Structure formats: C-alpha cells, structure tokens
Amino acid sequence: MHARVNNLRRTTAVLEQGMADGHHIGAQVYVSHRGVTAADFGLGESRPGVAMTPDTVMLWMSATKPLGAVAIAQQWERGKLALDDPVARHVPEFAQNGKDLITIRHILTHTAGIRSIEAGWPEESWEQIIAKICAMRIERDWTPGSKAGYSTHVSWFMLGEIVRRIDGRDYATYVRQEILEPLGMNDSWVAMPVNAYRGYGTRLGIMQKTEGDQVTDAGLDTEAACTNARPSGSGHGPVGELGRFYEMLLAGGALAGKRIISPQTTEALVARHRAGMYDHTFRHVMDWGLGFLLNSNQYGPDTVPYGYGPYASYRTYGHNGHQSTSAFADPENALAVAIVCNGMPGEPAHDRRMRAVHAAIYEDLEMRGK
User: Fold this and answer.
1) pTM, two decimal places
2) Could you tell me where the beta strands, DSSP code E, fall in 48-121?
3) pLDDT tens digits for 175-227?
4) Which residues does residue 47 pair with via DSSP β-bridges, in sequence order?
5) I need a surface site. Which of 61, 92, 105, 274 has the fewest CB within 10 A?
C-alpha cells in the first residue's frame, strides 16, 4: 500500500477483499472529515506490475459529470444563460426533430428524452458528435420534463457545447482553466494534451473489465480516449484531487481562497430539482439536483442504484461512475469522499462492493446513524 494517510481499517479490508475476489487489481481512496484528511492512499496495482499510489492518474467515468454542472452554473452566475433557456437558444441547430422545447434544466435533471446515440467518440471530432446529437430525435412519447431517464453521454456533450458557444474556449480547456487549476487539481483533466498523456507514462492507471473469468483492458485509457473530451466521462486525475472538488462544494463554492461559484449557486446545484420520479434508465425512483445525484435512500436503501451507502445523510450529493467510481459530499457529516476501483465487475458485484465500501467509511469514522 502507498499512503499519505490511512485511518480507514474496515474500508481497506473491504477493498482488499475485492482484490481477492478478482473485482479489481487496485483502488484509490480519498476521504476528508471536517476538512482534515482521513485517507489518501493507493492499494494494489494501477495496471499489471505497477503499484497504485495516491498520485496515480485514474479514470473517473461519470463522476466527471458535475464539472459540467459547475461550468454551466458559472455561466448562469455571469448572466450568460438561464436554467430554463431552451438549449436551442445557445445552439440553434439543436432544435431539429422536436427538440426545441428541451431546456438546460431538462438536461441537468435527466428529463430531456435524449438518452442515447452512437456518437462515435473518441474517433469522431467534437464538431461531428455535436452535429449527430443536434440531428437526433427526441424519444418517442417523451415530453421533456414529464419523464426521467439518465443520459449516459449525449446530454453532457450539449452542456459542453453551450459553454463553448458562450465562452469561446473549447470545453476541456475551459474546465481546466476555470475549475481544475484554480482548485489546485493540476493533474486532473477532461482531455489531456498529447504531451501530458505521453508524459504520464505508467503513472496513468488503466480501467479493466473484470466481469466473468476474463480480465481485459476497457480501452478507456488510450491516447485517443484521454486526449478527446467526453464531458460525461473522460475525466482523469488522482481521486484526492476529485475530493478537493467536493471540499470546495462543502465550503460553499470556494477553497484555499479560490472562489469557483457562490454559496447560493452551490446550494442551487444540490437542491432537489427532480424528486420522486422513476428513472427509466436505472429503473428506480431517484432524486436529482442540477447535474448531481442526490441521496435517494428514502426510495429503498437496499435497492437504489449508485447511492452513497446506508449511513449517508439525506442531504448527501455527488456522482458515481460506471461500475468503478464514487465521489460525494455529505454536508451534515462534513464528509468528502472520492474512490475509484480499477475493475468493472458487472453491476451486481459492483453494487455489493461499493455498498460495503460506503458503509465501512462511515463505520471507520464512527458516524453510523448520524
């Protein structure tokens, strides 16, 4: 184990058991409580034969999405957009094929009805992907705002394009300069420059598919995947840096003297904008803020997908990543958490693994039942 600090005995044991079970070959954990680091460590291997350390640059998957929500919130604060603007007000060609009524809020709450399309990332250019999304049709029998269904990738490209149209910088550069660098997240990226990718070498961990008997590289850490932005899931960095993002939110939008968004905007992002709606992608009732998945244990703590464990407070918010990643803030417990396991073992195994990890974190910190 490589650790700066690790006070999480139970959590470490759960992750070691996951390694023994073949679910992942390594993990990276960052936890802070009341602004004090309780854990910042790497366990096992980041790729075969290479140790996982706190400085390993790991894929965040969909835990990347809140960066887009904050980027949009910055434009909102600056008076460049309103949350209920039609997307087509900023990207006129998006209005094609019945999408003229879709608003920015619909996208942020996953109620837009544009869940999936074969976009061609990372081979296709940003412009080609945006053109495909603009030409797609809204799902049949879907009135925006009346139904909910998590959009894995499509919607977040449009948020990125809105930011690009308003600001002028490409989305990955904007996020790097306006969010990541001010927070000291210097090894975090939505899209790396080629020289950065090549410079990391074996410091860049890999994500594996571990479902079944065969272990394979997921193909998400290639040069093409790391250097081409996918706003929904191409974020890379040490999870300790992702933890800083949540410490910023817990502190009302600023950290170490760098303000990213206002306290009022922070509260707006994590308020319940979508409550009690059945999600047709996850097949479960779930609540959402603006780009943030809110604790939804009230709809079934043992069944809600991609939650934050049995002890998380009602106000907990964050975003997890496909079969691998969890990042969240629990304001009632002043807790920031970021975890990545570098194996995707299938949904049932991942669900059991992450539920156990979340429970162990709270038990290690003696915060059960708070």
Assistant:
1) 0.97
2) 50-51, 58-59
3) 999 999 999 999 999 999 999 999 999 999 999 999 988 899 999 999 999 99
4) 50
5) 92
Q: Please answer whether residues 88 and 161 qualify as being in contact, where contact means their C-beta atoms are separated by less than 8 angstroms.
A: no
45 alpha-carbon distance from chain centroid:
22
Domain ranges of the chain: 2-64+191-364, 69-171
Furthest CA-CA distance within the chain: 54
Provide the 10 A C-beta neighbour count for residue 336: 29
Concatenated DSSP letters of 322-335: TTTEEEEEEGGGTE
Distance CA 297, CA 56 (A): 32
d(CA 155, CA 166): 17
Q: How far is it, in rounded angstroms, from Cα 275 to Cα 70? A: 21
DSSP H helices in 150-280:
154-167, 171-175, 194-200, 223-227, 239-250, 263-269
Name residue 136's beta-bridge partners.
Answer: none
Length of the chain: 370
